[in-house]
Specification:
Layout: H1 2-48, E1 61-64, E2 67-74, E3 87-88, E4 92-100, E5 110-116, E6 124-131, E7 137-144, E8 147-155, E9 161-169, H2 174-201, H3 203-212
Parallel strand pairs: 3-9
Antiparallel strand pairs: 1-2, 2-4, 4-7, 5-6, 5-8, 8-9
Amino acid sequence: MGREHLLEKQKSSFLSRQEQGVIMLKQSVQLAFMTCVLAILCYTNTALGHGRVSLEEDTCVRQIGENMVHLNTYQPQFDQGGHYCTEIPMAGDTYLVVDLIDLGLRDMPVGMKVFRGEEKEGDMIIQVNAAHHPDGVINGIGRLDKGLYSVIVTAEGVPPLNYYYQLRVEMVDYGKLARTWAGPAIALLFLSWLLYKLIQSGRLKSWFKSEDD
């Protein structure tokens, strides 16, 4: 009887350790899965646009001193509700809208020019002559082909204020893409490493065997 009791106790202890291992295994897999989901959600938020961020963090804002302007670009012929900043997905007619955030800019003539290439010496594609904009909005439209463009918004103050944007039309920014996917890639590598370790340790087989039993 004593021996049978001891064997029963050892069996119970073994099963208890096995159950704990299964619980830890499930928790590890769940943690890795949640890490991947969180990383992908962060990527999605970044890819969809700059969203609701402060003006200081908005990549579409340019600031000189206390004076700020904000750029939005639109291509309603491709996407009625889509709006972009400097990364424009398609070549074609493009609407540029500059918001004069600070009221002081509305009291001075402001104009906008768009040049082909990285410098203002290229061909001028869009020109909005300097004028007062009491509503704080400057509009321009032009056809942008694939490539780089420079946008210069000039407020004719003393001294003049020049705000610069570089547009990328139908181009892939591989550096930005790599930075954006870094989080999901690390999460997937961690999950792959975890599964590899579990398979090597034999716990994964024990888990499935306990589930079958």
